[in-house]
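Re: beginner question about structure tokens

> Can someone show what the tokenized structure looks like for a real chain? I only ever see the sequence side.

Sure, here's an example I had lying around. Input first:
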Amino acid sequence: MTKEAIKYDPDYLVQMVNEKVAAIYIGHSVRALQNWRIRGGGPKFIKVSSRSVRYRRCDLNIWAESKLVSSTSEAANDR
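And the corresponding structure tokens:
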């Protein structure tokens, strides 16, 4: 979806997406999301049922923003 589409869809950031769409959105694999759900450290998610997980784009953005660093030494301190 383009920035123009976001302007016309105010619910874009709160819509729930499946793990495949979420993985593409943040540039990681589905497997990485699955591992983070088990081990922690990943974006917040919604457990719709025992076999169904969804993500909101706003939560993916918040998680990505929390990973921003300005130097490699900052990244080392995040471990």
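Each token stands for a local structural state, so reading them left to right follows the chain. The chain has five helices and three strands.
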